[in-house]
Amino acid sequence: MEAYETDHLAAVRALAPECMVLLRSNGAFPLAEPGEIALFGSGARHTIKGGTGSGDVNSRHVTTIEEGLETAGFTIVTRPWLEAYDRIRLQAHQDFIAGIRAEAAERGVPAIMVGMGSVMLEPEYTIPLDIQAGADPHAAVYILSRTSGEGSDRTPEAGDLRLTDTEIRDILDLNGRFERFLLVLNVGGVVDLSPLDDVANILLLSQLGATVGDAFADVLLGRAYPSGKLATTWAAWDEGDQIGDFGDPDDTHYREGIYVGYRFYDSVGKEPLFPFGFGLGYTTFDVQIRQVSLDGARVSIDVDVTN
CB of 73 within 8 A of CB of 34? Predict the structure, then answer.
């Protein structure tokens, strides 16, 4: 690998934590040191580096979450689960490709015209949450992944915008079983997190390029700080603006008028799960307002902030 490539990857890894958004935290993370860890979820081995279509690029190698954790010194104690999931995912992908080819043949068009923008839904599964015998992991991580890109809108189906029954089941099970449990969102867009109100630690990893696994390990161990803020509002699917006909493959009429983003939620009196610009940190702050003053159109607020 050329020196400029190494420098580029190092820069991406250093900047990636600034794009990660800590959505919930109870102080259980970061971890003080690597050790045995229980790793689950579609993105553990099949980590998504970025979206599909013309925004995609070819990389020499993409560091998965599993690889990043192992390089950082962690021991993954859930290989039976990961290997069982690989088999289910492979079959789901084969069925997905066969479906695209069948639809293309029926319509008499090239398969690329059907496949562009198509997203394979996350498969349901019946894999038990196995941990290797004798292991004693001090933390568990579930990597929830979703791919998306140009060519089609997201769909409010389980496995795309919504979570599958098995994802909800396993995430809540792990959240109750482990004192230190982290849900990691390896996604390019919003997913409906409304069934997961009890989950205390959620990190929006996003899709941060070829060094995503290493950058995640840095954040998990506190070697880097997740300082990103949300660039979109996250809400339950059925609590969002339902005006219009989003997802129509032929014509989309934008009839929502001014009811976009915060103006919709303010108008109907709803609180989204996480508003635009939201983002926590590993530390917490106590803010005490001392004085508020108004001078014409200028508002001044004096506050004491304690880290």
Answer: yes
Neighbour-count burial for 34-65, b at 16+ CB within 10 Å, e otherwise: bebbbbbbbbbbbbbbbebeeeeeeeeeebbb
302 Cβ contact partners less than 8 Å away, ≥ 6 residues apart: 289, 290, 291, 292
List % helix, strand, coil for the chain (3-state, nearest 5): 30, 20, 50
pLDDT of residue 240: 67
**How far is residue 21's CA from residue 303's CA, in Å, rounded to a whole number?**
25
Q: Which helix (H) or strand (E) holds 105?
A: helix 79-107
Inter-CA distances, 174 with 42, 184, 190, 207, Å: 15, 13, 22, 23
Q: Which stretches of the chain score pLDDT less than 50?
A: none
Picking from 195, 197, 79, 76, the residue whose alpha carbon sits closest to that of residue 139 is 76
Structure tokens at 299: 């508002």
What pLDDT shows up at residue 245?
A: 67
Q: How many separate helices (H) and strands (E) can be counted in the chain?
A: 7, 8
Residue 196 CA to residue 183 CA, distance in Å, equals: 10
The span from the CA of 26 to the CA of 134, in Å, is: 28
Asked if 225 contacts 44 with a C-beta cutoff of 8 angstroms, the reply is: no
Beta strands 140-146; 75-76: pairing state: unpaired
- Output phi, psi for 280, to 5 deg: -95, -175
Label residue 261 left, alpha or beta by phi (over 0 means left) and psi (-120 to 50 means alpha): left
End-to-end, the C-alpha distance of the chain in Å comes to: 43
Residue 204: what are its φ and ψ, rounded to 5°? Answer: -85, 100
Q: pTM of the full predicted structure?
A: 0.90
Q: Residue written as tokens 């070697």?
A: 223
pLDDT tens digits, 41-96: 999 999 999 988 777 888 889 999 999 999 999 999 999 999 999 999 999 999 99
Q: How far apart are CA 210 and CA 223, in angstroms?
A: 19
